[in-house]
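Course assignment 3, question 2. Fill in each field.
Student: A.L.
Task: Predict the tertiary structure for the chain below.
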Amino acid sequence: MKLTVVGTGLMGSSFVLAARQADLFSDIQGVEPDPESAKQALALGIVDSLSDAPASDSDLVLIASPSDMVAGWVDLLRAHKGIVFDVGSIKAPILDQLRGTSEGIPPRYVPCHPIAGSELSGPGAADVNLFRGRNVVITPASETDQHSVDVIRGLWAALGAQTLCMPAVEHDQKLALTSHLPHFLAFAYMHAIDPADRPFAGGGFRDFSRIAGSTPSMWSRIFTLNRQALRASLADFKTHLEAMDQALEQDDQQLLLDLIEQASAIRQRFRDD
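Answer field:
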């Protein structure tokens, strides 16, 4: 089979490396608008060739572009004979954009989101094991062809990932809380830090601020696309933050301890992550 990957950043290139390891494709083409990334992807052997558009004979097309560009690519490829899938972290706005077109959602488009990533970017950051043991959420629309979904589920399984299906809106709400909100808070937190504080920055700072090193342009797009779900999660977070702040203001040490213990117990359930 032949694969075309649109976008040779961390996600697209990691997928290709894993697919090569599993010997899934005989030929892999890259579509990359950034000249430096394109050159690096070719030099590293991530892709076999480069082009301005997916080849017409590609059996599968992976769209690993920024989330706000996915719908445009899917619309452009609606006549393509192969199955089209993506790895964007937001799903409902993409489907809404496609429903707003005259031809609606192409049946051979399978929306996907691997729950995996890194603050690093570019072809050089690609990790062959990025998806192994991770969950991949698939959010098929009612128009999505079941055979195409089955093919894509088998593809992710071949890379060592587990797949689960859910409605796009539910996915976006969950990711707003578990991924988008932490990044939002990390970016906001860094505005309170001065370089002069560096000698005092230990493990807590390192662990909390790591994701603030993620690509700004990518995250500003994600925040904008998923702003409603993100703002709802942010409002709920403010409630919990205010509860802890009030415990401090009132010098209620027992309440503060209770809140911390409750939070610690919840975190223990995620101890393997």
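Instructor remarks: The beta strands are 2-6, 27-31, 49-50, 60-63, 83-86, 109-110, 112-114, 135-138, 162-165. The mean pLDDT is 94.
Grade: pending
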